[in-house]
Amino acid sequence: ERLKHELAIARRIQMASLPQNTPKVEGLEIAGISIPALEVGGDYFDYLNGVPNRITIIVGDVSGKGTSAALYMSKVQGILRSLHDFGLSPRQLFIRANHLLRQALERKSFVTSIGGDFNTTSRQLALARAGHLPLFYYHARRAHVEKITPKGLGLGLDDDGIFASELEERIIAYEPGDVFLFVTDGVTEAHNGNGAEFGEDQLAEVLAQNVHNHAEQIRDKVISALKHFANNIEQHDDQTIVVVKATH
After folding, report:
1. Which of 79, 31, 35 has its CA nearest to residue 55?
2. Which ranges of the chain would DSSP assign to H, the alpha helix?
3. pTM here?
4. CA distances (Å), 123 to each of 28, 29, 85, in order?
5. I need a surface site. Which of 90, 130, 139, 143 has the fewest CB within 10 A?
């Protein structure tokens, strides 16, 4: 009973450390959620927002599940929030974070992450990916979902030189109606009773079918599709979803 009580407190603290309010950024609709598989988890998302026309979206996944992953997640989140105050691009942010995390993580632990800095004045996204899943990008004019996968290794795996040389930053010009979907692998690797996985293609299909909706509705449609696919099978991994939709 005491252990259950302490885990319930830990879950409350962890959920409170995730964004409780969605920042209002002119020209963008934003909606995010993180659903741990156990009482606490190793997934996280964050909104790093320093100036009115910019926001950096971060989604990350610590290797493993449960309490140890949750403790590392808290450390990663603190490091990224502190570093972002220096006005770094996503690539610079991950390079600095890797340097600190190499010293802070156990050898067998690592973190995958994806970071996107939206500039609503220039309508550009600067994207970096540290070993994470691709960004799912719906291009409204082409009516097509593209998977964007810049080069990059997981945080905490390699020394600064190798990590930096492998880390690519991609600049994407976007238009009103375009939608960006950030997820962790608990979404794409969700299982059903027959052992099949939800998969990236099905996720892209759900996105394409719902792009006319608001960001919150798109997020909720993805969650509904996951639940329908899983068919009441217990969630086996943390699931995090952030949707960003460009408006006029």
Report:
1. 31
2. 2-17, 66-84, 90-104, 160-166, 185-188, 200-210, 215-230
3. 0.93
4. 10, 14, 22
5. 143
